[in-house]
Design brief:
The protein has twelve helices and 14 strands. It is of the alpha/beta class and 409 residues long.
Length: 409
C-alpha cells in the first residue's frame, strides 16, 4: 500500500493519493479511514480533503452512525466533476468518446475513416467531433482534463508522432498528431499505442483488481496485445510493446507479408474470414473502412445457421487461442480479456471457440488455467482507454513524482 507524506513539498502527491483511494471506494471512505490507510496526520488529511471538496473533485456523503461518537462522513468521488476525451484511430473505424472520472462513457460516436482527407482535414474533423461530443455529453470545456489518442504503432508516444502504421493510409505517416491536436484545442494531448491504451482502460474499470496481471487481446483491422504486470501496463522501451501479428499459429496457413506461413495476423485477418466464410470471393480487396459492414454480414450468416460462415469464425477463435496460450506461457498472467471493434461483431460465434480451444490446449504451462473474459469496454476499448490515460495521469499517485530533478552545474 502506498503511504503519504506530511512534508509540504509533496502536497500534490498526497492529494492524488487520497483522490485515488476515494475513487476506489464506491460507497465512500471516511477521513479516519483515509488517515489510517495513507499514514497522513489528521491535520494533513483534513487539509487535503478540504481542498478536494473545494475544487469539486469530491463530495461529502450522508454521515454514517457506527457507534458512539461523532458520525463518520464518507467522502465520495464526483464522477461529473471532470472528464476526458478519448480518440481511437483504427483503419476500420474511428471512435471518439467522452468519459467521466470513473471511466464511464457519457458520449460516443463512430465514423468511417476518410481515406482522401488531408492532414488539415484530419485535425479539423477530430476537433469538430470533440467539440460536438462535449456538448452532447453536457460537459463544459473547463472540465476537460485532456485528450488521449490511441493509434496503431509504430509511434513516438512521447513526441505524439505516428510513424508508418502499416494499416493506415500514407497521409497518417510521420504525422505529429499530438502537437497538432494540442495546438488546435489548447488541451493537453497524449498519444499512446492502441493496445496499451485499451489495457489502461480495462485496468481503470477493474474495481475488483482482477486484471493486475493480465493480457488484453485487441482485434480490429489488425491484432495486438496489451499487457499488465502488477497493475502497470507494459509499454516497452519505445512505447510500442504488443505486436504479436507474426506469432505462427497455423504452420501450413496463409502466406504472410513477412514471408512466413500462418502468422496470427494473416490467419485471422478479416479479409481471410470473409473469403473463407463465403462473403467475398477474394478477387478484389476490401478497403479497411468497409470491413465492419462485411463482418456484420459474416456474423449474421454464422448466427443464422450458415455452416461455412460459422466454421470460418470458429477457426479464427481457435487460431487466436494458440496465440493466447503462447503469450500466457511467457507472462503467466492466467487472465485474458478480448475486445476491439471487430471482435465485438464476431464474439457471439468466436468466443466459445476461443475459450474451448484455450481450455483444451496441451501447450499451456499455467498451473491454474486461463480465464478468458470479454472486454468491459467492447467496441470502445481503445477510445475509452485513451481517455483513461488522461484520468490516470491526473489521478494515480506515482512515487517517481516525488523525485527532485537536478540541474546541471
Amino acid at each position: 500500500m502506498r503511504r503519504g507524506s506530511n512534508l509540504p513539498a509533496v502536497g500534490t502527491y498526497n492529494q492524488t493519493l487520497v483522490l485515488d483511494l476515494i475513487r476506489r471506494s464506491p460507497e465512500g471512505i471516511s477521513r479516519i479511514e483515509l488517515a489510517a490507510r495513507t499514514g497522513l496526520s489528521a491535520q494533513t488529511l483534513s487539509n487535503v480533503a478540504r481542498r478536494l471538496v473545494a475544487e469539486g473533485w469530491v463530495r461529502e456523503g450522508t454521515p454514517v452512525v457506527s457507534g458512539p461518537g461523532k458520525p463518520r462522513t464518507p467522502l465520495q468521488l464526483d464522477p461529473a466533476a471532470r472528464c476526458a476525451v478519448g480518440i481511437h484511430l483504427d483503419p476500420a473505424v474511428e471512435t471518439v468518446v467522452v468519459v467521466d472520472l470513473l471511466g464511464h462513457v457519457v458520449a460516443q460516436t463512430e465514423r468511417t475513416p476518410r481515406p482522401d482527407a488531408t492532414r488539415d482535414q484530419i485535425v479539423a474533423d477530430l476537433v469538430g467531433t470533440v467539440e460536438s461530443l462535449l456538448v452532447e455529453g453536457g460537459r463544459s470545456r473547463a472540465s476537460v482534463l485532456g485528450i488521449g489518442v490511441a493509434a496503431p504503432g509504430p509511434l513516438d508516444a512521447e513526441a505524439g508522432i505516428l510513424f508508418e502504421p502499416p494499416l493506415l493510409p500514407p497521409i497518417w505517416h510521420d504525422l505529429a498528431l499530438g502537437p497538432l491536436l494540442h495546438e488546435a484545442t489548447g488541451l493537453p494531448t497524449t498519444v499512446e499505442k492502441d493496445v496499451v491504451a485499451a489495457m489502461v482502460g480495462e485496468l481503470w474499470r477493474d474495481a475488483a483488481q482482477e486484471l493486475q496481471d493480465s493480457i488484453f487481446v485487441y482485434y480490429g483491422a489488425g491484432v495486438g496485445v496489451g499487457l499488465a504486470v502488477d497493475g502497470t501496463p507494459i509499454r516497452g522501451r519505445t512505447g510500442n510493446a504488443g505486436d504479436v501479428a507474426h506469432l505462427v499459429v497455423e504452420p501450413n496457413g496463409p502466406m504472410c507479408g513477412c514471408g512466413q506461413r500462418g502468422c496470427l495476423g494473416a490467419a485471422i485477418a478479416p479479409e481471410r474470414l470473409l473469403v473463407d466464410g463465403g462473403v467475398i470471393d477474394g478477387a478484389e480487396p476490401v478497403a479497411a473502412p468497409a470491413l465492419r459492414e462485411r463482418l456484420r454480414e459474416l456474423a449474421s450468416r454464422a448466427g443464422g445457421g450458415d455452416e461455412r460462415a460459422a466454421a470460418a469464425v470458429r477457426r479464427a477463435g481457435s487460431s487466436l487461442a494458440r496465440a493466447v496460450v503462447q503469450i500466457n506461457n511467457l507472462l503467466d498472467a492466467d487472465v485474458v480479456v478480448v475486445g476491439g471493434p471487430l471482435w465485438t461483431l464476431l464474439s457471439a460465434s468466436a468466443s466459445s471457440a476461443l475459450s474451448d480451444a484455450v481450455a483444451a490446449s496441451t501447450e499451456t504451462a499455467t498451473v491454474r488455467g486461463i480465464r478468458v473474459l470479454e472486454s468491459a469496454l467492447a467496441t470502445d476499448a481503445a477510445a475509452a482507454g485513451a481517455a483513461c490515460l488522461v484520468l490516470d495521469a491526473a489521478m494515480t499517485p506515482r512515487p517517481t513524482d516525488l523525485m527532485i530533478a537536478g540541474t546541471a552545474g
